[in-house]
């Protein structure tokens, strides 16, 4: 069976991606910083999709932890066809003038260094088995910015560059690497918001509707499977049109 490993996949976008691959018959590895949560999410996948699924504790801040988990995945599944780098420190409320050195190190070491070493471990397994696909969940923040997300935006820019580097260096091993640039995704952070707040958010983008986990999972499955066998080094944008809008968007007021 083909195998996919998705980081930070106990809930929200990551879990939706795990369900999408499991629904296509992939065996699934899930990581979380919390082992119990990872194992519980894997158990849900096993029960619903009747595939092999395992949960692992992994901390992107520790290269040793990353290397240990990839070694376990190689032992447990025998192969790794698709790696989805989904985990991220969202860095909400961190701006350039007030960011501390600790905030900088935490966010960059999680999002850039951690994902770099995770992709490298994935690539080493894929090289040995003759190929594979790496998908990084990026963000429109790497191309357009809002206040209070500086470090996050910089980190997502680095990841978008990382996929182009991987495409060039790893293509000879039949390893593809692509970035999925997501706009707004509905997650548990939307739980309990008022209808007014939901409408205010939706008025920010041309289609007037945020992506849900399944929308992102469809893109991740496209990039992570043979459906995209000649696609590498690209950014796939799934953003309801936000990047296409030059000025602050007011839906219904754009004549
Ligand atoms: N939600 C959006 O509107 C949006 C928009 C564009 C892009 N994205 C991207 O989509 C991906 C999934 O995000 P999501 O919105 O679904 O959020 P999420 O579930 O909150 O984040 C994904 C996972 O990342 C892990 N994580 C969070 N903070 C971390 C930290 N400081 N260090 C290490 N791991 C951490 C968590 O897993 P554990 O706690 O289990 O370890 C978390 O479940 C992320 O790459 C995000 O940047 C989201």
What does this structure look like?
With 255 residues, the protein is an alpha/beta fold. The protein has a single domain, classed as 3-Layer(aba) Sandwich (Rossmann fold), CATH 3.40.50. The protein is built from 7 helices and 7 strands, in the order βαβαβαβαβαβααβ. The chain has helices spanning 12-23, 35-49, 63-77, 101-129, 150-170, 195-202, 213-224; strands at 3-6, 27-32, 53-57, 82-85, 132-139, 175-182, 235-238. It has a 7-stranded parallel β-sheet, sandwiched between helices. β1, α1 (12-23) and β2 (27-32) form a beta-alpha-beta unit. The protein binds NADP nicotinamide-adenine-dinucleotide phosphate. The site of NADP nicotinamide-adenine-dinucleotide phosphate has 23 residues, from α1 and β5.
